[in-house]
Amino acid sequence: MSHTGRALHGLCLLTLGVFVGRWTATIATVSAQSPSKKEAREILIGNAPIRLDDPIDSMLTVLKKQYKVDDRGKLANGDEFLAITTLDSATILGSVQVKQDKVVGAAREWGDIEASDALLSFFQKIYGAFESASSQTQVGVLKCMTSRKPDGVTTALLFDFDGRGVTLYLAQKDKEIEGKPFRWITVEESISK
Fold this sequence. Notes:
By secondary structure, this protein is an alpha+beta fold. It has four helices and eleven strands; from the N terminus they run αβαββαββββαββββ. It folds into two domains: 115 residues, no CATH class; 72 residues. Strand 10 and strand 11 form a beta hairpin. It is globular.
């Protein structure tokens, strides 16, 4: 995957992470099967499966075999917050929240990039599109799509908030424009019946 593709995926996941606490999204995937109830309660951090309601001891046993686990203290709600990194602490892989010795939450870090002024501005535009599209309803539907054609690949996240939508997509073409590969990230807001 190209650096731009990884950057978009990181930006998309960061965007989703920001909005997960604010909006409930019904997830509909186009290119993958829907997860079973068991899979929906499990997430991989590195290659270690983390399951909600697992005892902390069994989770720590699995994680500490391959990763560094740092206790980062308590969150405002009283949950204990654990950061999971590579053994050299160079890469953050995710985090786990624990309450009463049971896993109550987990997050996988898909990647990050340094935020230049242009990226900060673009992220604010993404936020503005979501804020505007979700101003009437906070329940939405997300579709993730990948379109492969002979001349390139388009990856898209389509959010629908009851007729108001936000589309975030990355177009990567095999052709060059002015000697540079064609890669374009677009965010747009729309309305429809």
